[in-house]
Amino acid sequence: HAQGDQAGLARERLAAMTATLARSAAAPARTAAALAHSAASHPARPAPGAGTLKRVQRWSALGSTRIILTTDRKSGYRYGLIPAAHGAPARLYVDLEEIEPAEDLEQTQEVDDAVLRRIRVARQPGGTTRVVLDLKRIEGYTIKDFHLPAEKKIVIDLRPPEAALVASTAQARPDDGYQSQRFDGAAHEAPHGAPGERLALSRAFGLKVKTIVIDPGHGGHDPGAIGFGLQEKDLALDIAQRLRTAIERNRPGLRVGMTREDDRFVALEDRPRIAKDQGADLFISIHLNANSTERISGIETYFLNLTADAAAIQVAARENALTEKKVSDLNLILTDLLQDANILESNRLARTLQASLVGQLLPGFPVRNLGVKQAPFLVLIGSEMPSVLVEAGFITNRAESKRFRESHYREKIAEGIYAGLSDYISGDSLADKKPPLPVKLAKADS
How far apart are CA 369 and CA 362, in angstroms? Predict the structure, then answer.
């Protein structure tokens, strides 16, 4: 709709696509031999001010294949399809301008799925990195790019011929999820079936959690939610410090990091980057909720995903310090990115923490279990590990606010989160058990 609220954005994206296609049409096709010569003739030497190609990820689902290229900054790129010739396979290439491959990024990755033979990465003259996809047979492809706060992603979708799709589908169980393979040689199948039948990736591969980063929400000039003389930033930091102490006391082998140690401001987009710099295997962001209606209370845990839930969007808008319109824009950005296994594990981690936290508090306090929800939180975008955001209660509810003033109650919250983390790490997930039902609230909390 030319007069719609997204018309301006649509025109901008169309102009960008047109420019990209024009560059692609002007780019000369290069043979495999020329590509190999180029890689050999231009040894690793980072260009001044160049960005980095951090990751190349690939997912396959019923024959279709998705590749995601992640760089640490915005950059121009061009792409083209080179037909098969003289025994060489058809190739799709993407040239990333002023981008260098990360030092630990493998140059060649064998894939051999329904449409893709291998993925190759090579430096080109002028500080360009070329990613080459050696193809089998494809019906077509699409390429999209997304700018996130901490990085840029280029998403390539390869569509197989109908015959390949049918053959691949026939080999899969009817209830299979997508299959995912990272380029460290580890492959996994997405969980399927009822929650109690799901197999955690951490248990399937014996993955070890070595580092946990805790993120106390807000800070500095950003107080977060305010209610009854309390500020979210102070409570979040206190609970985070207690959680760190609980982890260090009970699991001395784990490293625990914090995105902030005191009352200072840390930008939302910097927090997942801090977690990555500290080598986090899990990321826990701690917050307190707010609502204009004082009677609203309860505990809820979020993981990063799309949502159409108005209440979840409202919470994300407040925590993101954005308008609700901007949150809906984030939904659009995320639409084609959320194929990552981290989403599955973040969901599992969120359910485990929520069940444990509510279970820890219920014996002594009439807390309300608001469950696990999903929303596009900026603080979780860009994290490369299972990540959740805990809303430990409503600071704007009189009864809950009164509890938050008590050191004992804040300690119980930290203990509940720690117990959930411990269950998740050990694989004995409370999320696989029937979660506690919401309890009837006391009159003051209703």
Answer: 9
